[in-house]
Amino acid sequence: MEEGFPRIINVNVGGYVYTTTIDTIARDPNSMLGAMFSGRQQIAKDTRGNYFIDRAGAMFRHILNFLRTSELCLPQSFDEFDQLSAEADFYQVQDLIEALQIFREDRRRNLQLSEGQGTIIVSVDRYRNQLLLSGREDLVKEVFKEYIKTSEFVLTLLRARGYVRDYRVPWKPGGAELTKADAFDLLYGHGFVLEGCNGGGSDADEAGTQFQEYIFVRKNKL
């Protein structure tokens, strides 16, 4: 524990009050936070006695979480990289600055085949044990390129102005070329979020009437 500070402290960052430990906030001694909470500087306080930092309050949660875990955990829909990078630079948390650069480049690499926005629909034909992919052709290729052979892809797709409708992928529970879980992981990994789902039919229905449909949307760009 740093001299002069209680073990548990409240920090008001731009109107957002965070409760943490002095060990966490001063974990990086080379950062501005490490210097501020080293006991060698005076820190402003608000009217309630909380330590005060005049910076973007909402962004500070990502700074603090990184100091707690040493891992950068951002939601898939996160698109405020410029602001978070500015905050990381201000606080001079070098490991976070580097982690942000790597994370951002990875996301950009995943978006290289499209403008980053669009919809992919995953349908599950349980009777035929197949996944059906529908959406813009460049998006489907981007996300599922490892499972699609280009020659078969070109011949099999039903196209309408670059739109893919019901491209069939073999699927068998427990031993599939591409399982539903695999498809969801790929979509989440490329920044898509589940917007809705529907389904119908029953085991007693005629062949092919039992289905499930999942709508994934990517709204944000880096």
List keywords for this structure.
8 helices, 32% helix, six-stranded antiparallel beta sheet, 25% strand, three-stranded mixed beta sheet, 222 residues
Question: What do you see in this structure?
Answer:
The chain has helices at 22-25, 32-36, 60-69, 81-91, 94-110, 137-144, 150-156, 180-189, and strands at 8-13, 16-21, 51-53, 118-125, 130-136, 158-159, 163-170, 193-200, 211-218. By secondary structure, it is an alpha+beta fold. The strands form 2 sheets. The protein has a 6-stranded antiparallel beta sheet with strand order 6-7-5-4-9-8. A 3-stranded mixed beta sheet has the order 2-1-3. Helix 4 (81-91) packs antiparallel against helix 5 (94-110). The chain starts with 7 loop residues before the first strand and ends with a strand.
Please specify the SSE layout and strand pairing.
Elements: E1 8-13, E2 16-21, H1 22-25, H2 32-36, E3 51-53, H3 60-69, H4 81-91, H5 94-110, E4 118-125, E5 130-136, H6 137-144, H7 150-156, E6 158-159, E7 163-170, H8 180-189, E8 193-200, E9 211-218
Parallel strand pairs: 1-3
Antiparallel strand pairs: 1-2, 4-5, 4-9, 5-7, 6-7, 8-9
